[in-house]
Amino acid sequence: MLGCYDDHTQLDVNVSQRLTHNMRLYGDVLDLTNAPLRYYVGTPSRPIQEEYYRWWAMFGLRVDF
Prior knowledge:
The protein is mainly beta. It has one domain (3-63). 0% of the residues lie in helices and 54% in strands. The strands form two sheets. Strands 1-4-5 form a three-stranded antiparallel beta sheet, with no helix packed on it. The chain has a three-stranded antiparallel beta sheet with strand order 2-3-6, with no helix packed on it. A hairpin with a 2-residue loop joins strand 2 and strand 3.
């Protein structure tokens, strides 16, 4: 019997703002919904594996030379 991953939707947000012609401030926030990733064999309503990943963020300043 073949195993399958259930539908998975993840919400990510990315923003950036140019400060000068060569500097940009940016931010990314990933997995805002914390939706589970499920693996099943046979019936989707009875997953054999369910994984949750926490949201995480990344912020920074980019400088181009």
